[in-house]
Write a structure and sequence with these properties.
This protein folds into three domains: about 55 residues; about 200 residues, 3-Layer(aba) Sandwich (Rossmann fold); about 100 residues. Helices cover about 40% and strands about 20% of the residues. It contains eleven helices and 14 strands. Helix 7 links the parallel strand 10 and strand 11. It is globular, with a radius of gyration of 25 Å. The N and C termini lie far apart (about 105 Å).
């Protein structure tokens, strides 16, 4: 009687396993190919729709309304964070002494609808985290407003605050119904739009040629040590999509000293060991900043505009406790954007050593043109 040896059985099962793995590889390849194919088709269709819409505005088939106040838009071509919020703050600091300013945002993630001017009773849930950040820093000198319909909101601002003579539009580059006097387009150094693709295959809201609408481009999050040769290479790539006269500037991030969220008498984190927590579009930038200044033991990244709940806070607490047991003392450092949501959670988090990291941008020197001077001239030119 024929007998199969143990070795023969092992060879048989090995052969079967190899066949199964080969089939899985082929299956995964086919599925990946189909996914890429359908994403590219969807991107093509999305691009056609966006082009038709933009053409309709460019050819005046759709009406675009220009606000009475001089309006500056700060926007981008891609989804995700390019640093619009700190750039709006930069403009506020630049003009707050000489103009009556209002900011207008959609108020992403808020629980309310319609137009709203921020009041002392508002919070991140009623106006959104980024507008709340503006309000905490600059009110009452600056009117912080939210509204999905930018044209109606701009008209309401003029009605309720007629003294407003400078309107800062947050993330309005694709909102073609409103026509700003000055369009500033941000391009993320780490993810330039000329290397990206349209949604859903890539992360672009519209084709890079949309940059022709920009009056200036700022390359945001630029490393401080970038060479002039690399800058020129970026400029050359951007100029493929801009008007020939469009100036291109470079901005960088500057992080300030961490500020205690609850215990104002504690001026600095009590240890170099930190746990980083963020709910922003690009957490790696924040985490790199922490790692450069502290010993970053671990980082927790939540989705952008996170509406934190008790389960989130408990997760953070447990992670801090587990690390604390190994390092004796450890501080929690969060983003300035998240701080506006955490600030009213003292009853839940008050005993934890939590700090937030303030962020500012500054525009790097330009060999021929100073950004502040250029923008002031543009604002003066557009005043009625």
């Amino acid at each position: 009687m024929f007998r199969i040896t143990i070795t023969q059985k092992a060879h048989y099962f090995t052969a079967q396993q190899q066949k199964t793995e080969k089939k899985l590889k082929i299956y995964n390849f086919i599925m990946q190919f189909l996914l890429q194919f359908f994403l590219k088709i969807a991107s093509l269709l999305f691009g056609i729709v966006i082009k038709l819409r933009n053409d309709a505005y460019d050819k005046k088939f759709f009406k675009a309304v220009r606000p009475k106040s001089v309006a500056i838009s700060v926007g981008n071509l891609n989804v995700g964070g390019t640093g619009k919020t700190p750039h709006i703050e930069y403009l506020i600091r630049l003009f707050v002494a000489s103009h009556s300013i209002a900011t207008l945002s959609r108020g992403y993630g808020r629980k309310t609808k319609g137009f709203r001017i921020a009041q002392i009773s508002d919070n991140a849930q009623s106006i959104g985290d980024e507008p709340m950040q503006f309000f905490q820093k600059f009110a009452p000198q600056v009117a912080v407003c939210v509204g999905e319909k930018r044209v109606e909101a701009a008209e309401q601002i003029q009605k309720e605050r007629p003294e407003t003579n400078l309107l800062l539009l947050d993330d309005a580059f694709q909102h073609r119904a409103i026509a700003p006097h000055i369009q500033i387009l941000l391009c993320d150094y780490n993810r330039p739009f000329y290397q990206d693709a349209l949604l859903p295959f890539g992360r672009l809201r519209e084709h890079p040629r949309g940059a022709k609408r920009a009056d200036a481009i700022i390359v945001s999050k630029t490393p401080t040590g970038i060479s002039e040769h690399e800058k020129q290479d970026i400029v050359n790539n951007l100029k493929r999509y801009t008007k020939s006269e469009t100036p291109i500037f470079f901005s960088s991030i500057r992080y300030a000293t961490p500020i205690p969220l609850f215990h104002t008498n504690q001026k600095q984190p009590h240890t170099r060991h930190v746990l980083g927590v963020s709910g922003i579009a690009q957490p790696k930038v924040f985490e790199r900043a922490l790692a450069q200044r502290f010993e970053l033991i671990e980082a927790i990244a939540f989705p952008d505009h996170r509406d934190y709940n008790l389960a989130d806070y408990e997760k953070i607490r447990k992670k801090w406790q587990s690390i604390q047991s190994s390092f004796d003392k450890i501080s929690i450092i969060i983003t300035e954007k998240d701080a506006v949501k955490w600030r009213n959670q003292k009853a839940i988090l008050g005993e934890l050593p939590i700090f937030y990291l303030p962020i500012e941008v500054y525009v790097q020197p330009h060999p021929q043109l100073h950004f502040d001077t250029w923008l002031a001239e543009q604002v003066a030119k557009n005043k009625k």
